[in-house]
Structure formats: C-alpha cells, structure tokens
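Batch manifest line 308
LIGAND: iron/sulfur cluster
JOB: complex structure
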Amino acid sequence: MSDGVAVAIKRSVSFTVNDLEVSVPEGFTILQACRSQGIDIPTLCYLEVLTPVNTCRLCMVEVQGSRTLVPSCSRKVEPGMIVRTESERVAASRKMVLELLASSVDMSIASDELTHWMNLYQVDKERFGPLAEPTPLGERHTQHSGQHIGDDGTRAATVYKPVKVDNEQYVRDYSRCVLCYRCVEACGTDAQNTFAISLGGRGFAAHITTEFDVTLPESACVYCGNCVAVCPTGALMFKSEHDMRLNSTWDTSKQTVTRTVCPYCGVGCNLEIHEQDNRIVKVTSPLDHDVTKGMLCVKGRFGFEFVQ
Ligand code: SF4
Ligand code: SF4
Ligand code: FES
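JOB STATUS: finished
ARTIFACT:
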C-alpha cells in the first residue's frame, strides 16, 4: 500500500519439473507453468479460451507422492511440487487414451496438433481389433448405462453415424467426435450463453446433441459457429468446407489466410479470411485477440457469402 493506493502483489511459486527448478506466478496450472518454460504437453479438451473440463485425460503428468497421474490442464502448481511430464508411465497413458479414441472415432482429419501427438506416441488405431460394423442408426443413442455390449471382443466398436446436414452454415459429423466438450463450453457460459447443445446418453452411448435431438434450425442455435471454431477433430465443419471435401476440391496448400477487422459493427472483432481459388471458403478468428478470443457472431462467421 502506498499513498492510499492498493498495489497488487503477484506471489510466485517454486516447483521442480523434469529436474528443473522453476518459479511461476501463483495460480498457474502445471500446464501453464510448463508451457511458460517451453515444455509442451499434449491436450485435447483444453483450450486457453475455455474453462478446463478435464474430460480427455491426455495431459496427464506424474506428481511425486500422488498415487495417480494428474491432469496438468487443471491442477494448480503447489510449492515444492515435483513433476515429470515425460516418463514411461505418462507415455503409456497418453498412448492408451489416443488409441481408445482412434479405435472408435474417425480421426483422419484431426487438427495438426492432435495428429502430431498421435504420430509421436505411435498410435495404433487397430490395437483393439479391426473396426466393427456401425450399429444401426439411432441404436447407440437409445442405450442405457451398462447396456453397451462390445462386439465379440475381436473388433472395436465405433461411434459411426451419418453426417448431419440440416442447414447451410455448418455440418455435424459426430463419427469424428471425441467428446471433448469444447463445443458445449463455447455454446454455454464460456462464450455464447445459448446452450443449444449438450451431452446426451451415458457411457459408450454418450453423444453431443441438441435438445430432444431436434435439427439445428429447430434448436436454440443462433449460428455463431463458435462450436465449429473450437472443435479439434473436424466433427463440426463449415458447410463450404464439407462440400469442397466431398468434391475433392478442398486444398489448404492453395489457401491464403488474411487477418482483418469485421466490418459489420463497432466491436472490432478480428477475422481470418480463408481464401481458395479467389473465393472465401471459411472465416475463423484468432484466439489471441483480446476482443474476440476466437469467438464471433453469425455475421462475422458466416456473412461472407455476399462477397462471391
Ligand atoms: S453455432 Fe453457436 S449457438 Fe449454435 S450450437 Fe454452435 S455455439 Fe451454439
Ligand atoms: S463436436 Fe468437436 S468440439 Fe464438440 S465434443 Fe465433439 S470433438 Fe469436441
Ligand atoms: S487436456 Fe487436460 S484433461 Fe483434457
């Protein structure tokens, strides 16, 4: 305190990570602390603009004295903590998580980051056997807890289902969904506060859905596309991209990305215009912008069609 003005004092916490003594601001998670030291840890459900939900367990690390591995994205650093981000146990856990996902979910167009981690941990998507035939449409979603019976143990059940195409803005391909909850968070209190989507079912039948599984036009969705922006696997995708992929014309090597300011109102959201063959193919927004934080409204996200 000086001259009656309160001064915020930031305390720091010292801990050891991979035999290195480091100090970070109090309140940092293990993940934040490690990344601030250039130590990377794989994440899936975590995104810096969303509240950690702790669902994927990909970011697990070893903490001395802890019986189980701990999720680095949400566990805060404590004084004197001794952390190992790489060890045989950690690598086995991450590989297992990724193999369980890859055996049941179509990860073929997952984000570059996720693909990098899958390659690093030498993920074998057939570890649990070849993929089983899809269950009849709707069957998995009507199962109750404990009703899921795996095939005969020689094949891996999948979450396959047809792509939901029910509007001109974006499609939902839940055979690519890893249930990371990012879209639910973005549609809820972390950004949009619309609550159009949530989790339905339990166990292997768990899935992202609108209320009563109605189509998007019938739901509370306002087409902000913030769920699409945070999806790491391509389960949620611009209709423009989906159509181009179907026609085999989607080609990121021919695309440019131009950062600009949204012209629709005075908020000043930043846009990243993705262009291919002289057409805008989609619009994203940078996570590091203090106004936007990757989120937009329907005008900024999808209001580009008139340009063509
Ligand atoms: S587009 Fe926006 S409102 Fe619609 S489901 Fe996604 S986040 Fe929710
Ligand atoms: S649709 Fe995408 S963002 Fe939503 S839970 Fe599935 S993978 Fe995550
Ligand atoms: S990234 Fe930490 S639990 Fe998913």
